[in-house]
Amino acid sequence: MNAQPKPALSPAELDAFWMPFTANRQFKANPRLLARADGMRYWTVDGREVLDAVSGLWCVNAGHGRREITDAVTQQLNTMEFAPTFQMGHPIAFELANRLAAIAPPGMDRVFFTNSGSESVDTALKIAIAYHRARGAGQRTRFIGREKGYHGVGFGGMSVGGMVHNRKIFGSSMVPGVDHLPHTLDLGHNAFSRGLPHWGAHFANELERLIALHDASTIAAVIVEPISGSAGVILPPVGYLKRLREICDKHDILLIFDEVITGFGRTGKAFAAQSFDVTADLMTTAKGLTNGAVPMGAVFAQRKIYDALMQGPEGAIELFHGYTYSAHPVACAAALATLDIYTKEGLLTRAATLAPKWEEAVHSLRGTKHVIDVRNYGLIGAVELEPRAGKPGARAFDVFLECFERGVMVRQTGDVIAMSPPLIIEEKQITRIVETLTGVIRDTD
Ligand code: PXG
């Protein structure tokens, strides 16, 4: 395959693309450009090999350059590049929904397709409101999110999310009636926990307090990530999610799990709900659904939610919601090929097999200078660094840059280095990632 260097872009050629979640001026002064990918690796435009420790952006779970997906997408493009799904349908959309229902947590056998995690979240929030209304509880419109939660960038997802930078500019335009649970990160009690921390289940009881404040009859749903990713990997304390489930049940409030990063094998089962043995009412997904090859998201719903909305005259549209590209045939083809790979190669459970080695490896960073916490679950890892005085995030950003120079791509968020490698990773690559990261942290001021 061609790993030939590509001509570098001139500064002027970098101007027009307004990059997402990027320090545009800093990046364009010193761009990091990727040209090719295969298996566990990227190659930069100048032909340098980089080991991918983050599955692109938590999405390429089966590794890069999967021929089966390319072939399925090519064939679909050659057969029918687009078909509408408003008052029309095409067979592989139904096939994909059935295949997804078969691997979903118990009872989640109704699937609404979107094109991204953000759209999945906004869709789930709308379904929650529509569900209550259909049952005669139209006053249940409030949502409870969580501090440090990330649910994408739509107005709904941003409002229930709890990332300050994503919210502060848009504060006055938020969806009204949203409150937030406290986050569960507490280094004082839980630093260097291996797997789930044992302290902190009581944070879930804060939900009772918020319900008492707003009254259950006004609340539609609680939305949390089973494991927060973007906030720097925050793990649920043992028993915490079960407690949320119990409180929601008691008050007839829907529980939404945002599994955009935890879905499709990341935690050692198909979904984190299965790893933690807690089932939500709605589940949002994207990313690993198509191995990142084509944008697609999916919202899974318990059948009771779908059934509650299937009322009114036969000819009435039950839910006024959808996207031109919901169940896009090319995305469906990519997702079906991806699910075939996951199944054939046992990737939905491979993270569980590798977790002990992964845990051992990432926790070897304990004791390295600057390291104040290490967190892990399945094939997720995070290393939190002591911030530089007055410069939050600067140390971890330098570590991210230097890791890239030394041939390993990690993610930086605040003072946390996050890792979520493709589920095809080999043990020697785990070692390489952790050795590189250790060396870089040691060499960073
Ligand atoms: N929910 C969750 C839990 C996510 O992690 C979204 C929704 C939004 O998905 P889209 O497809 O609209 O971007 C996400 C996205 C990171 C990182 O490095 C995480 C995400 C995106 C980019 C970077 O942690 N998650």
Detailed description of the structure:
Strand 1 and strand 2 (41-44) form a beta hairpin. This protein is an alpha/beta fold. The chain is globular and about 65 Å long. The chain has 16 helices and 15 strands. It has helices at residues 24-29, 55-58, 67-79, 91-103, 117-134, 155-160, 164-167, 187-190, 206-214, 240-251, 272-276, 303-309, 329-344, 347-363, 394-405, 427-442, and strands at residues 34-38, 41-44, 49-52, 110-114, 142-146, 178-181, 219-224, 254-258, 282-285, 297-301, 371-377, 380-385, 408-409, 411-413, 416-419. A 7-stranded mixed β-sheet has the order 4-10-9-8-7-5-6, sandwiched between helices. It has a 4-stranded mixed β-sheet with strand order 1-2-3-13. Helix 4 packs parallel to helix 13. The structure holds 3-[O-phosphonopyridoxyl]--amino-benzoic acid. 3-[O-phosphonopyridoxyl]--amino-benzoic acid (PXG) is lined by residues 57-58, 116-118, 121, 150-152, 225, 229-230, 258, 260-261, 286, 411, 413, 418.
Please outline the helices and strands:
Elements: H1 24-29, E1 34-38, E2 41-44, E3 49-52, H2 55-58, H3 67-79, H4 91-103, E4 110-114, H5 117-134, E5 142-146, H6 155-160, H7 164-167, E6 178-181, H8 187-190, H9 206-214, E7 219-224, H10 240-251, E8 254-258, H11 272-276, E9 282-285, E10 297-301, H12 303-309, H13 329-344, H14 347-363, E11 371-377, E12 380-385, H15 394-405, E13 408-409, E14 411-413, E15 416-419, H16 427-442
Parallel strand pairs: 3-13, 5-6, 5-7, 7-8, 8-9
Antiparallel strand pairs: 1-2, 2-3, 4-10, 9-10, 11-12, 12-15, 14-15
Bound molecules: 3-[O-phosphonopyridoxyl]--amino-benzoic acid.
